[in-house]
Amino acid sequence: MDLSENTLVLLRDEAYVFLCREALEQQLAELDREKQAIVDTRPPFGVFARKETREAFTRSLQMANETEAALRDRVDQLKRLDDWIKPKLHDAIAAYLEAASPEYGFFASMRQVFAAWRTDFAPLPELATAFAREVKGYRELVAETKSSAKRQVEALAHLRNAAVRLETQAEHLCVLARDLASFAGEDTEIARDLRLPTLPNFHRVAWVGRLALLPAESCIRESTLVENEARAFVAAGTGGIEARLEASETAAALHRERFLESYWTQLRAYAQTNYVEERDVDSVLAELAQRYVQGNIAERQADLSRDVFEGER
Question: Which are the contacts of 175, defined by CB distance < 8 A and separation ≥ 6?
Fold first, then answer.
C-alpha cells in the first residue's frame, strides 16, 4: 500500500520547513560571529573617536541587527508553518499505518479491547456475590446433620447455576487476555506494559461437581475458602481494576505513538533527501503560507458560510 499523494506533499513540505530552518539557523550563527567582530571594532574612546569611525560602527551594527531581525522573522514563520503541517501529517501517517500495519493496528485497536473488557467485567462482582451466597447456602446445609439429600441436591443445582453464570462471564475476560498475550508473544516489554487485571479463579463449574463428592469436613473447609475468595474480590472494589486498565491504555497509546514516530523518522529522512530541491527561503515561505494559512482560512470561511446558510433555512 502506497502513501497517498496528500501525505507525500505533507512530507515534502515538512522537509522544506526543516531544511529552511536549518539554513537560517546557520546564517544566524554566522551573523552572531560577525556581530561580535563588529562589536570588537567599537571605537575605544566613544565620543572622542572620529565621527566617521563612529558612524561606520553604528551603520555596521545596525545592518547586522536588521539582518538578524529579518532572519529571526523567517524562522518564526517557519515554526508557525511547522505547527500547521505536523498535526496534519501525523493524522495522515496514522491513517496509513492503521490500514497497512497489523502491529500499529493492534495498538490502535486496544481502546476497543479495554472497553470490551470493562463491559464484560461490569457484571462480575454481582455474579461473584451470588456465587458466594450459594456456596454459603450449600455449606450450611452440609453442616446440618439432619438436612435431606433432596435439599442438598437442590442447593447444588442453585450453586451450579451461579457457577455457570460466573464462569461464562469470566471466560469472556479470559479470551481477551489470551488474545492480548498471544499478540505480545516474546516481546516482554509489551507483555509487561499491556496487562489486563488479574482475577481470581472463577472457573468453578467442575469444582461444584467435585464438591458434592467430598466428605462433609472437607466440603466445609474448601467451600469456606472459595466463598472467602469471592467475597474478598467483591470487597476490594474496582479501584485496582480500573487503575490497571488505565495504565495499560496509557502504555498502548505510548507504544502506538512510538511506532508511528519511528516510521515517521524514516519517512522524514527519505523526504529530506529525495523530495526537495534547492530553493529560496522566501519562495518556500510564500508557497507554504498560501497552502496552509490561506488555504485553511478559506476552508474555515466556507464552513462558517455554510453554517450561517443552514441556520437561516
Answer: none
127/54 same-domain check? no
Rounded to 5°, angle at Cα 25 from 22 and 27: 110
Please report where in the chains the cell 522566501 appears, as a residue.
282
Cβ-contact 166, 202 below 8 angstroms: yes
Same domain, 210 and 290: no
The pTM of this model reads 0.74
Q: Model confidence over 79-118: pLDDT tens digits? A: 999 999 999 999 999 999 999 998 888 887 788 888 899 9
pLDDT digits (tens, 9 = 90+) for 177-202: 888 877 776 667 877 888 889 999 99
Burial of 22-41, coded b for 16+ CB within 10 Å and e otherwise, reads eebeebeeebeeebeebeee
Q: Which domain holds residue 127?
A: 103-256
DSSP-derived secondary structure for 150-208: HHHHHHHHHHHHHHHHHHHHHHHHHHHHHHHHHHHTT-HHHHHHS-PPP------HHHH
